[in-house]
Amino acid sequence: MSLLVLYLLLFANSSNGSPSPNRKSRTSSVFSLFNLREKSRFWSETVLRTGFDDLESTKPGSADILNYTKAGNIGSFLNLLEVDAMYLPVPVNFIFIGFEGKGNKEFKLNADELERWFTKIDHIFEHTRIPKIGETLTPFYKISVDQGHNTHMPLVSHINYNFSVHAIELDEKVTSIFENAISMLGRKDDISSSRNGEKGIWQVDVDMISFLFTSLVEYLKLEDAYNVFILNPKRDIKMGTYGYRRGLSSSEIKFLHENKALQTKILHSGNVPDSVLDLNNIKRPLYEKHPMAKFSWTIADETDTIDWYNRCFDALKNVEKLYQGKDIADVIQTKILKILNSQNDDMKLLVETALKSGNFDGFHADCLTDTWIGNQRWAFVDLTAGGPFSWGPSVGGEGVRTDRSLPNVGKTIGAVTEISEDEAEDRLQEAIQEKFSVFGDSDHHAIDILLAEIDVYELFAFKHCKGRRVKLALCEELDERMQDLKGELQSYEGEQYEEQHKRKAIEALKRMEDWNLFSDTHEDAQNYTVARDIFLSHLGETLWSSLRHIISPSLADGAFHYYEKIFFQLFFVTQEKVRHIKKLPVDLKSLTDGLSSLVLPSQKAQFSTELLPLSEDPALAMAFSVARRAAAVPLLLVNGTYRKTVRTYLDSAILQHQIQKLKEHASLKGSHASGRSTLEVPIFWFIHSDALLIDKHYQAKALSDMVIVAQSEPSSWESHLQCNGEALLWDLRRPTKAALAAVAEHIAGLLPLHLVYNEAHETAIEDWIWSAGCNPFSITSQGWKISQFQNDTIARSYVITTLEESIQLVNSAIHRLVMEETSKQTFKVFKAHESELLNKHRYVVSIWRRISNIMGELRYTDALRQLHTLEDATKSFSDYVNTTIASLHPIHCTMQRKVEVELDMTTIPAFMVVALALWFLLKRRKPKPKIN
Length: 932
What we know:
It is a single chain. The protein has about 950 residues and is of the alpha/beta class. Helix content is about 40%, strand content about 15%. Strands 1, 2, 3, 6, 8, 9, 10 and 12 form an 8-stranded mixed sheet that branches. The longest helix is centred in the last third of the chain and has 33 residues, at about 825-855. The N and C termini lie far apart (about 90 Å).
């Protein structure tokens, strides 16, 4: 059997593609990676066969030539189809704490109902890109996206994420640790109300509780996956509603500001341990390898977590001793000292500056939240916490966080199961009165009264009896009454009753036969109430949004390539000349540390700084003056107050155009060095005395070839965003957070966490739930520390760009093969190229496969090492396709000359006439004699 036949046998059945909804539907090849949508698995060894090396090509025969010509084109002959989708595996753990029946409202989450709802989550979706965001916000602060913008890359990518969800339920000892931690690490948000009996709102120290999440992930060895914790702890009786915060509350900052003695005491205090919650490095792996399946469920018992529990219990006892007997000043002092001795450079810089200067104007409290994105590969949502919390645009906007954005056990499951016996009787009486009030004084037949009574009991039982852990005594009484009603309905079968009454009784009996509202059923097999289904569906939607916003977020439109070195060029533009760069009102160390955090471990960061005073550079001063504009911005504040302000801002498009025109700064355009070794990132940092923004609303903006940052003097600028009913204040003196977000967008396409591409709207939509954590892309914290989620997104952006370009180039080459027709004359020449052509194609696919496997293990550094090899292999395949097609063209152009003569009855006489005419014309004539 020939090589061709074996090749067709191996690949013929692997072309079950699934075209993207945003692209034309077409048959996909096996290289749709790997399209295993039905099995919900990632590719295995049987998907792509690599056993071609041991095959020997035989001498082509007539059958090969026949198959070649019948194929019609070279692409069909080789069974090479364009790649429609490539699937990248993404392992995710959803870790449930407090759902074993010992948490809030004693709610128990069963594996079967969890799978029933969570398998409905779309676990496969495309990587998406968001077009260029408009320069200004609309009057109602809705993000404006340029839908007509010519995109550099497809908005709906060939790359698909294939999420494998592993649900883990932890035991009640883990729940108790988090309940104790929330109680011990919680303190009142408003310290001025500490003397009265009101519970008020409490804040939980998120820095301290983060140690528990990090240690639990390390203990169970879950670092090879993304972990989302869902908490359902019991609420502490002494606490009211609570949330999580990093740092101090507004009342604590005010107390510290007014207490000069406390400030002095802190500045002269010694060091304290970084954290009393530092735990020993203990590990007990929950699994050897992540179960790469669509959905899997694991229940961790006490033996899996007992060591972690014991160490955490002892550590929390130390915390209790640390805070025991301390007043408000001592607690604040301990907290400040921990910040000063921690590795949190962003918060440390803020506190140090405020203490040394005595100026607390720019020291603002972070928001209280019930969601948080950690610095490692974990995030959590606490369903028991609740303010109610809200954040997002102050007025208008979409997808804002409200008190109904997250599922609530108390308001759904608790509302059903918490009703008491007295409340049940009252509600039953109300239902009876409401039902029978329509009867009035008119006469009604007994059957109608019976049916009305049955309706009341049915509705009441469905709401308050079905699915309860502890059965109400009233439900048992109703069950007995229902049996009596059945007997009365059966008595209507006698002949003395009218036919219509008999029919009503029979229909009612049939309906009652299907009921199971009062009988005892095993908890695992019980019918689920509407409340549980509503809760689970809402929970599923929340967890799905975590996949879209923090694990695999949409990126900005653009091709973001991997460079071995990133060269940050910092140009500080000041109004007047500054003698030395250290005299600038900028903390260069924290800035360079923040920029270095955007660089991956396999990359190197370099920095250069330069002062550009406008007073000594007329050309740059002119560019600044041309780009500086003013606008009247109408504001509707959180409290409903209308205000019109005049804002001075830099028009980013004009400024970019002006800088590009300056010949003196031609080297500042961020041009790439030769090859892919170095990426130059010019950052223009404008320092101005008066309030100055970028495009009316921003502190920093990422452009195609530069980043623009504006720094000015106001320390408490009221932004267009709010959190929990209070306007978010920006310190315009420290635009480091905004600058890092803009640089991340410039080099890798990262966007704020609330933005995601929506295929239904074909544009970006907003969802502010996961705009949390102390990272540059969150609005609820002043922190700017890059999370491991964002580091992975940066690396994934580089990989996806290279994969996307590789797919496009391979598809283009295959398209050229499809357009190349086959013929007998080109067969021999093509056979000389066939083997090498297939080898080069298989090599590209093998690299795709290798990268996919590596990324499924979250080894992004190893995946980045494959990118240069993939680029070279893809280019080699494309070039060889061009070479193969070029070698076939001379044969197509060769003309085979052949004269075909048609013979009939007139052919011979015509030949004779032509021959006779030629004989007379060409016959030799006798020479005439010459006569002088």
